[in-house]
Amino acid sequence: MSSSRGGLTMWFCDGLLVGCPAGCLLRRTSVFGTNVYAAVSSVCGAAVHSGLLGTSGGTVRLKRLQGRHGYRGSSSHGVQSQSLSHWISSFSLSKGGNSVCVCVCADCQADIAVVMDSSTNIGQRRFNLQKNFIAKLAAALKVGATGPHVGLIQASDSPKTEFLLTNFTHPKDLLFAIRQTTYLGGNANTGKALLHAAQSIFSSELGARRGHPRVLLALVDGWPSDDVERAATFARDSGINVFIVSVAKASPEELSMVPDRNFSRKAVCKDNGFFSYSIPSWFNAAKHTRALSTRLCSLDQLLCSKTCYNSVHIGFLIDGSSSVGYVNFQLVLDFLVGIARSFDISDVGAHIGAVQFTYDQRLEFGMFDNDNKEDAIDALRRISYMSGGTSTGSAINYAVHNLFRPAARGRNFLIVVTDGQSYDDVRGPATAAHSQGVTIFSVGVAWAPLELLRVMSSEPKDTHTFFTRDFSGLSDFIQPVVHNICTDYSHNN
């Protein structure tokens, strides 16, 4: 590995051995961070920071670290590092060992739609270079029947689908299809192409696989002719991870002609740097395929993928009657906190809300009141015990109308925790909730009648009904409830 190589991509590896040559110089190297941390630097530049390597070279182990905020610059080994407000990943160095981590797309199973630029702006020559880049990217992805699937759409005046995700799952057939793609010309209507791809390519009827991450990669030569924001919003709402690769960005003289200079930031899944990629020219684009393919296959970084953990809306309906008691009420809250911790609660992810009931109902916090997990869990823990009677039926009606918005089946869940007999009818309210797409889990404790629990719970009753004699047994239900929520979600989405 030469000392001038930069931008080492380490999205998958827990540990990777690399060699640094003797006489490694620090020219053209940018070092960020302090001590053993480095980001956006050459391997040798990072090694100087830790003092592990001298000019004689050697082997070091790199380990991926999570991103950091507010990292201060410092001077180390004669190198002044720069400060960073934020980055999404970095790596540390330690003494080399014997094991090696193979760090590519071995387990990648994403469905990837590529939107290529076929506008007049790119021209025939650069269009051919773009096809070569896509072919090399497909090879790096290791496309196969059980691996990544790739579809291709051309962006021009109107989008044109060249082939679907399942048309070519053999590498040779796929490469041939890419090279057979013909140049269209016209406007670079990337927004239209993104919307077309998001609305059609990823449908199960056209071959998109259920439960597989969905990635939409747009290649843009210069800048788009149309607006991309509407298409990007639709893609995000549909669980599609949009990447933008900008090639040959506008020069300072051309900026006045660009309709929206922030098009890339608006189009990507999340404006955190991970989903945007810049290539100076099509003539050297091929050397970027490995780094880009690794990003596309970094499943833990694909923040817009819809899973049960980041897509469901869970309402907690909590019995606050006198028979529960203060101590047991805290055990109920602990149980609900355990469930909440299992989900990725955020403004674009999962949401939770809570209602406490006796004869009356009290909205503790709404489904969309907290946009991060920490605040949501704090809100749960702050719930104060009411004490009173038990009217579960009225509480179900109240929760359905005050917690949930209309959503696709398998998205809205209501977990009812109660310790006794309801003084009102529960069958009617529960049936109404089911018909409105709300899946009910009934969790009974102590004197809660099993028949009542099964009347409330959704089908199949056995996987949506839980009972324990003692409040301390609630913790045993955390994982089964979470598992069954995800089973319901997967079945319906």
Protein architecture, described:
Mean pLDDT is 82; it is low at 1-56 and 97-104. The protein has a 6-stranded mixed sheet with strand order 8-7-6-9-10-11, with helices on both faces. The protein has 3 domains: 16-95, Beta Complex (Ferric Hydroxamate Uptake Protein, Chain A, domain 1), CATH 2.170.130.20; 111-301, Rossmann fold (3-Layer(aba) Sandwich); 308-492, 3-Layer(aba) Sandwich (Rossmann fold). It has helices spanning 43-50, 123-141, 171-179, 190-201, 229-237, 263-267, 289-296, 308-311, 326-341, 373-381, 392-403, 427-435, 450-456, 461-464, 478-492, and strands at residues 16-20, 58-71, 75-76, 79-80, 84-95, 111-117, 149-155, 160-163, 214-221, 240-247, 276-279, 313-319, 351-357, 361-365, 412-418, 438-445, 465-468. It contains 15 helices and 17 strands. It is α/β, with parallel strands linked by helices and 493 residues long. Helix 2 packs across helix 7, helix 4 packs parallel to helix 5 and helix 9 (326-341) packs across helix 15. It is elongated and about 80 Å long.
Give the helix/strand layout.
Elements: E1 16-20, H1 43-50, E2 58-71, E3 75-76, E4 79-80, E5 84-95, E6 111-117, H2 123-141, E7 149-155, E8 160-163, H3 171-179, H4 190-201, E9 214-221, H5 229-237, E10 240-247, H6 263-267, E11 276-279, H7 289-296, H8 308-311, E12 313-319, H9 326-341, E13 351-357, E14 361-365, H10 373-381, H11 392-403, E15 412-418, H12 427-435, E16 438-445, H13 450-456, H14 461-464, E17 465-468, H15 478-492
Parallel strand pairs: 6-7, 6-9, 9-10, 10-11, 12-13, 12-15, 15-16, 16-17
Antiparallel strand pairs: 1-2, 2-5, 3-4, 7-8, 13-14
Helix pairs in contact: 2-3, 2-7, 4-5, 9-10, 9-15, 11-12
Pfam family, one: VWA
Domain VWFA: 111-302, 313-481
Subcellular location: Secreted
